[in-house]
């Protein structure tokens, strides 16, 4: 029983950030993929509570915090986007997880310049680093897993390729009014040292209700997932973005190989927009109905 519990929480924890962040054409070479960032600003912080479906019960299993701040990288003005995922302390005694993702993205275009992923799960450690060189149209990678030798590689980059952090903020700035229900929006993503041509399928508008009775009209869509150790692949994830100028992820739900997981926005701070928004203040807490 202890092994099964550990396995279930390992499945939740290992892809928590991926599930919350995978908010997921052809682009011309050197195209500016993002024309205008209207949805977020430096200082924004979002906290999500993660749940794992244990039979018929949703169990609180972890937390993810996303933060953005202005910084300099290679003498360029960037957004430093950081995602930190951790399981609840109640489960540290048999499976301790602390994952950290960091991306430096161009402040105007959100094109990633550097992506760092540090995974600490029980006795498993891995460190992925990627450098985006747009002059040579290449991505250099350095990966080390457990006690194995460092693996160096060079990938041929594709126009408008994002990592799993920068893509979430790019999608928040999409003009969904251009699409109708059922449309596919192409996305190029770097995942585990491979570039994948994926898409998000727009599923229209849907209202999410808070326990307080407050309602949030949301843009609903499903990203195409990459088949692997956690996901079967396909469109088994659903994301709800607030249909206002902040485009905050309100809720994310996905099926994994064993059970399903859910992330629900718990608190927010430093929002860019208070006008034309569901959020009258730039800081607050939510109590979304599960």
How would you describe this structure to a colleague?
This protein is mostly beta strands. The protein has one domain (2-285). Helices cover 9% and strands 50% of the residues. Mean pLDDT is 83; it is low at 1-31.
Mean pLDDT: 83
Q: Uncertain spans, ≥5 residues at pLDDT below 50? A: 1-31
How many separate helices?
3
Oligomeric state as shown: single chain
What would you call the structural class?
Answer: mainly beta
- Amount of beta strand: over 45%
The helix fraction, in percent, is under 10%
Query: Taking Cα atoms only, what radius of gyration do you get, to the nearest Å?
Result: 18 Å
| Number of E-type strands | 16
Taken from the alpha-carbon principal axes, the silhouette is globular
Largest sheet: 16 strands, mixed
- Domain count: the total is 1
H-E order: HHEEEEEEEEEHEEEEEEE
Q: Distance N terminus to C terminus?
A: 27 Å
Give a summary of the structure in a few sentences.
It contains three helices and 16 strands. It has 290 residues and is mainly beta. It has one domain.
């Amino acid at each position: 029983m202890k092994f099964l519990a550990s396995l279930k929480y390992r499945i939740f924890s290992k892809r928590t950030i991926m599930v919350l962040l995978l908010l997921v054409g052809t682009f011309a070479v050197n195209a500016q993929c993002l024309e205008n960032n209207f949805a977020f600003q430096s200082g924004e912080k979002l906290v999500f509570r993660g749940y794992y479906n244990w039979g018929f019960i949703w169990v609180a299993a972890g937390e993810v915090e996303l933060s953005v701040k202005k910084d300099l990288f290679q003498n360029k003005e960037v957004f430093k986007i950081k995602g930190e995922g951790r399981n609840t302390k109640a489960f540290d005694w048999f499976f301790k997880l602390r994952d950290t993702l960091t991306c430096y993205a161009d402040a105007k275009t959100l094109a990633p310049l550097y992506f760092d992923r540090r995974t600490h799960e029980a006795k498993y450690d891995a460190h992925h680093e990627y450098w985006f060189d747009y002059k040579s149209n290449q991505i250099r990678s350095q990966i080390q897993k457990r006690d194995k030798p460092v693996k160096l590689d060079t990938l041929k980059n594709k126009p408008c390729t994002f990592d799993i952090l920068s893509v979430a903020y790019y999608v928040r700035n999409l003009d969904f009014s251009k699409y109708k229900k059922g449309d596919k929006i192409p996305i190029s993503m770097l995942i585990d040292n491979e570039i994948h041509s994926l898409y998000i399928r727009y599923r229209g508008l849907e209202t999410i209700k808070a326990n307080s009775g407050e309602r949030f009209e949301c843009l609903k869509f499903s990203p195409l997932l990459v088949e692997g150790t956690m996901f079967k692949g396909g469109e088994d994830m659903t994301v709800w973005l607030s249909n206002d100028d902040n485009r905050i992820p309100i809720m994310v739900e996905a099926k994994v190989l064993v059970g399903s997981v859910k992330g629900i926005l718990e608190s927010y701070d430093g929002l860019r927009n208070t006008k034309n928004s569901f959020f009258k203040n730039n800081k607050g807490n939510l109590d979304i109905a599960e």
